[in-house]
Amino acid sequence: MCRHLAYVGGPVALGELLVRPPHALLRQSWEPRTQDSGVVNADGFGVGWYAEGDPVPARYRRAGPIWGDLSFADLARVVRAGAFLGAVRGATFPGADGEAAAAPFTAGPWLFSHNGAVEGWPDSLTALAGALPAGELLRLEARSDSALLWALVLHRLRAGDAPGAALADTVREVAAAAPGSRLNLLLTDGDLIAATAWRNSLWYLPGPGRVAVASEPYDDDPRWREVPEHTLVTADRADVTLTPLKEPSA
């Protein structure tokens, strides 16, 4: 299990949302409030952010817990960005991929994270993986369910799908192949955020002129809104749209 957060809006220090709030990702790494599977997220962390004038995000990832990285604490204090995605990881399955398995995953302008787990991994997704071009499988950063989910989403994005459609169709396809999976996906290109609530908690904090979408609130601001189960969220600095997602037919 994991916790993640995406933000677009006016420039802020990364630590203003990821470290300093009373229930920020830093604290969620050892004391999440709405996580119902696992109790600690100490198997890696990462953050990707967009520098002004550069559409390709920078990324900082580590294999250990966020609370043990003093270099990140320093970086988060001084780096400012108008868009970023951060995540802390609680590994569902054993693996030796280390830092490569930590979100966010990236390609071109995109940052991606997965909060959840694929039931029956890896056998349940053998057919879906086999439908991807061999080159895309060889470029997987890690041998994890999250990395394969990213490959499935990215394949759709490269085919021209809109961000929300790429997430929604991937979730429905994976849920049909692996019923019971937890598939909260989070995607941003620095302007738009798309996310799914699928068997895990998801919240958003609207404007003005900014939006945050997160696994759980990082503070007690009463403007936080919980996303209903089986919902696609698309958001930018001005607007948030919620679209119901149907479960696949049995």
TrEMBL record:
Pathway per the UniProt entry: Amino-acid biosynthesis; ergothioneine biosynthesis
A Pfam family assignment: GATase_4
All residue ranges annotated as the Glutamine amidotransferase type-2 domain in the record: 2-250
Example of a GO biological process term: ergothioneine biosynthetic process
Gene3D superfamilies: Glutamine Phosphoribosylpyrophosphate, subunit 1, domain 1
Catalytic activity annotation: gamma-L-glutamyl-hercynylcysteine S-oxide + H2O = S-(hercyn-2-yl)-L-cysteine S-oxide + L-glutamate
Keywords: Glutamine amidotransferase, Hydrolase
Single GO MF annotation: hydrolase activity, acting on carbon-nitrogen (but not peptide) bonds, in linear amides
Keyword Hydrolase (UniProt): yes
Lineage top rank: taxon: Bacteria
InterPro entries from the UniProt entry: EgtC (IPR017808), EgtC-like (IPR026869), EgtC_Actinobacteria (IPR032889), Gamma-glu_amide_hydrolase (IPR052373), GATase_2_dom (IPR017932), Ntn_hydrolases_N (IPR029055)
UniProt EC number: 3.5.1.118
Broad class of enzyme this protein falls into: hydrolase
Coiled coil start-end: none
Function in brief: Catalyzes the hydrolysis of the gamma-glutamyl amide bond of hercynyl-gamma-L-glutamyl-L-cysteine sulfoxide to produce hercynylcysteine sulfoxide, a step in the biosynthesis pathway of ergothioneine.
Protein name: Gamma-glutamyl-hercynylcysteine sulfoxide hydrolase
Organism: Streptomyces vietnamensis
Lineage, highest ranks first: Bacteria, Bacillati, Actinomycetota, Actinomycetes, Kitasatosporales
